[in-house]
């Protein structure tokens, strides 16, 4: 398969997702960027749930993201919580309403049903796409936003996850979240 064909396929899936979300009755009042911000906040850890984290992840301007976050706050889908140690920093937390909304939406039914019809090959495809993403993240000069458990700083201390970068203990559930500080392990030469 050539790179161009793979790109075409990914672009088609992206387009199908946009259409599916646009037509979903639960999203009649929501802009795509607002939904993207909610999905990011549901997947990221406590080092990454800041306005800057959302901006970097979505690759949009600060002004655009700021407007979207204000709209989400007005809809009571996120709340701002001051950082316990740095009073200038805020964290964005999903409300119960936002979590229920995402639970009803994700994964998109068209994709989940297609993957289920593929059986074991659907799971293989997911693994291969994950490997492809790691490869791209390793070589691209952008924040990888990778899974915490795959980070070179991820450690186990007293059988619990621990961040070697911040020198702080992590909750077991953090291992499955994405992080803006993530760095892929060095590849042996
Ligand atoms: S181990 Fe890596 S991914 Fe996990 S919190 Fe620390 S820097 Fe982030």
How does this structure look, described?
With 189 residues, the chain is mostly helical. The chain folds into two domains: 3-105, Winged helix-like DNA-binding domain superfamily/Winged helix DNA-binding domain (Arc Repressor Mutant, subunit A), CATH 1.10.10; 143-189, no CATH class. The protein has helices at residues 3-23, 32-43, 51-58, 62-74, 96-105, 109-118, 120-139, and strands at residues 78-82, 90-94, 154-157, 160-163, 168-169. A three-stranded antiparallel β-sheet has the order 3-4-5, with no helix packed on it. A two-stranded antiparallel sheet has the order 1-2. Helix 2 (32-43) packs across helix 4, helix 3 (51-58) crosses helix 4 and helix 6 (109-118) packs across helix 7. The two termini are 27 Å apart. The relative contact order is 0.12. The mean pLDDT is 92. Bound molecules: iron/sulfur cluster. The site of iron/sulfur cluster has 12 residues, from loops.
Bound molecules: iron/sulfur cluster
Can you tell me the CATH architecture of the largest domain? Orthogonal Bundle
- Computed Rg: 18 Å
Average pLDDT metric: 92
Oligomeric composition of the shown chains: single chain
Strand content: 5-15%
Question: What distance separates the N and C termini?
Answer: 27 Å
Order of helices and strands: HHHHEEHHHEEE
Strand order of the largest sheet: 3-4-5
Output the number of helix runs.
7
Q: How is the CATH topology of the largest domain named?
A: Arc Repressor Mutant, subunit A
Which range best describes the helical content: under 10%, 10-25%, 25-40%, 40-55%, 55-70% or over 70%?
Answer: 40-55%
Got a strand count? 5
């Amino acid at each position: 398969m050539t790179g161009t064909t793979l790109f075409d396929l990914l672009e088609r899936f992206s387009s199908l997702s946009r259409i599916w979300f646009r037509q979903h009755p639960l999203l009649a009042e929501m802009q795509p960027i607002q939904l993207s911000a909610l999905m990011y906040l549901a997947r990221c850890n406590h080092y990454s749930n800041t306005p800057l984290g959302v901006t970097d992840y979505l690759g949009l301007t600060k002004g655009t993201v700021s407007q979207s976050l204000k709209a989400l706050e007005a809809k009571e889908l996120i709340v701002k919580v001051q950082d316990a140690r740095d009073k200038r920093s805020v964290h964005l937390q999903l409300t119960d309403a936002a979590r229920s909304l995402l639970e009803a939406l994700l994964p998109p039914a068209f994709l989940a049903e297609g993957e289920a019809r593929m059986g074991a090959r659907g799971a293989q495809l997911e693994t291969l796409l994950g490997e492809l993403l790691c490869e791209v993240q390793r070589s691209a000069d952008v924040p990888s936003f990778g899974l915490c458990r795959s980070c070179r700083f991820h450690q186990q201390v007293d059988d619990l996850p621990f961040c070697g970068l911040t020198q702080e203990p992590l909750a077991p559930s953090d291992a499955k979240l994405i992080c803006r500080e993530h760095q892929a392990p060095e590849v042996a030469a």
